[in-house]
Amino acid sequence: MTDHVYDRTLAIVGLGPRGLGALEALAADAIDRKFSVKVDIFDATNALGAGPNFHPDESALCLLNIPVRVLDIDPPRIVRDEIAPFAKWSSANYNPDDFPPRCDLGAYLMARFKALCDVTKAFFDTSHSDVNVSAVRQNDNGWWVSTADKQLGPYDEVLLCPGQPATEPDPQLQRWMDHAQKNALNLVSAYPAKSLLSAAHDWRDKQVAVRGLGLSTHDVLRILTLGLSGRFEDGSYVRSGNEPRKILPFSRDGLPPAPKPATAEIDALYDPLPKEVTLFETSLAEAVTQPPKQVLKTVCDALIMPTARILASLGVPHSLATIERWLAMEREDPGTQDSQETSVILRTTIEMAHNRVPPSVGYVVGQLWRKLQNELRSGVNSAELSSDAATALVGFDEALKRYSYGPPVSASEQLLILIDDGLVGLQAVDDPDIMLDPDGWRLVEGDDALSTQVMVDAVLPSPDLEQIIDPLIRCAVEGGLITPVDDGFGAQTLPDGTLVNRNGDSNNGLCLLGRLSLGSVIAADSLHDCFGASTHRWAKGFVARGLAARPSQSQNE
After folding, report:
1. Fold adopted by 8-52+113-166+463-556
2. For residues 366 and 373, what is the distance between their CA atoms, to the nearest angstrom?
């Protein structure tokens, strides 16, 4: 296609799962319209389609957060004859309730990208540069991409899919980094997990603190146990002798995420009825037009009756007033409803996941919220919210992740086994004071003071634009091409991903998809979102702009 005159030229910066989803959506629309595109991909990784989080070379101990049965990312029609859905493609013979390793899915996404390139040769000319992009700029000829030694372009459009770029450490982490460097201490990130495992071989006689109690901490625990040749057997942990002396996880609230229902049959107990989904959609459409203080009340009111119905179906005594109070507390001070000790919450939610004890209001609300994520994204991402309304909705969604984004029940059970074994300690789990000394860190909670020689950071950085230090994003923010929704949030974008500049105008031809637009979008961390409506809105907009720019037939004659 070297002599081809393209309808549109496109630079894509970053091709992990979201970039792949965008390219698939574009291919489907372009082929239907006989629309040709020159696509230049800029990504320093050697795992196009997978990205670092799903890199095929990562540890198989890092698991997906969703079971095979709900991994609804089947290949689009255009590549369906070239590559099967993941469960059929993989040689692992997964059961529907299995949570696969992320690296296995990454290998699949790489194969899917190759299949896409193979079937779109007639309309797409795709190239890849394994370099980092440091800046984008626009002149009268179009958009230009800057690398370390080149200016490439012009392009009609640039799509940014940066995933989670490098971020300035928060003040606590920065103090620890300075402390670790000064005293030659081990301060290690949870990812890449292969690096964590390599370092962990030297921690056999050391106490290890883990900052965070979320999903990443489960990956860390598997690395520090199964990765060091330990094993879980008959409800117990069998030590290899290579493990750290003690592992001490902690977080700001000490609340462990509740595991997902254990089986498809149990999960189905929490399915909303069609009329309840419709009510949620209607309420959300109304909410996004309301003043910020009313937005969450309207959305939460749509959850009351479904929650009551599910509790009644499971024989749980309840009242509408109880559900209303729980939701009101979640809006005002999330997590304060859960006042039990961490180990008690963990044991209880495991039993709920197996349907061996009745679910709590919070557990039911969380499962409903998880099942309404597509409707939530559709209603919020396609609307133009005020910054206050966006802040309220995003904050509610983030806090409720302790129920809606939970791990597989097996991961929670392994954590409980490690607590009972004594390898994991919870003495300082709930927001301890952390003191620095030359030998490491001291975690102080009440009368307990525990010294640790190693710190593992398992907290995902926020998408706060002011904290991003990646040269491309930093340059775009400082140049006014990207502006935040609000303090602490991501970029202002239109529903099709077009970025809004500091003057409030759209940057025609410069788009961004993903978690760095949190506030303009919601629930962007989901793998499903990478292949969801946001990528299709962007693709349709790209093709529509290209068709509008096509010379008329009379001009060609």
Report:
1. FAD/NAD(P)-binding domain (3.50.50)
2. 11
Do 171-254+422-457 and 8-52+113-166+463-556 fall under one CATH topology? yes
82 burial level (CB within 10 Å; 0-12, 13-18, 19+) = middle
Q: Which residues of 389-402 are buried (b: 16+ CB within 10 A; e: fewer)?
A: bbbbbbebbbbbbb
- Quick one: 32 exposed, middle or buried, by C-beta within 10 A (0-12, 13-18, 19+)? exposed
How many Cβ atoms are within 10 Å of 130's Cβ, its own excluded? 11
SS3 for 37-94, per residue? EEEEEECCCCCCCCCHHHCCCCCCCCECCCCHHHCCCCCCHHHCCCCCCHHHHCCCCC
pLDDT of residue 462: 87
With helix as H, strand as E and coil as C, how does 517-553 read? HECCECCCCCHHHHCCHHHHHHHHHHHHHHHHHCCCH
Task: Give the residues across from 128 on adjacent strands.
Answer: 41
Determine the Cα–Cα distance for residues 476 and 467; give it in Å rounded to an integer: 13
Rounded to whole angstroms, the Cα distance separating 368 from 374 reads: 12
pLDDT for 16-35, tens place per residue?
Answer: 999 999 999 999 988 888 89
Query: What residues contact 178, with CB distance under 8 A and at least 6 apart?
Result: none
DSSP SS3 for 36: coil
Pick the CATH number of 171-254+422-457 from 3.50.50.60, 3.90.640.10, 3.30.2130.30, 3.40.50.970: 3.50.50.60
Question: Binning pLDDT at 50, 70 and 90, where does residue 3 land?
Answer: low
d(CA 22, CA 323): 39
| 345 CB-near residues (< 8 Å, 6+ apart) | 255, 256, 258, 338
CB 435 within 8 A of CB 288: no
Q: Any idea how long the chain is?
A: 557
Verdict on whether the full-model pTM lies above 0.90: yes
At 143, is the pLDDT very low, low, confident or very high (cuts 50, 70, 90)?
very high
The residue extents of the domains of the chain are: 8-52+113-166+463-556, 171-254+422-457, 264-404
Query: For strand 448-452 and strand 440-445, is the pairing parallel, antiparallel, or unpaired?
Result: antiparallel
Please report how many Cα atoms fall inside a 13 Å half-sphere around the Cα of residue 456, on the Cβ side. 32
* CB 228 within 8 Å of CB 200: yes
Question: Beta-carbon neighbour count of residue 334 at 10 Å?
Answer: 18
The tokens for 233 are 């057997």
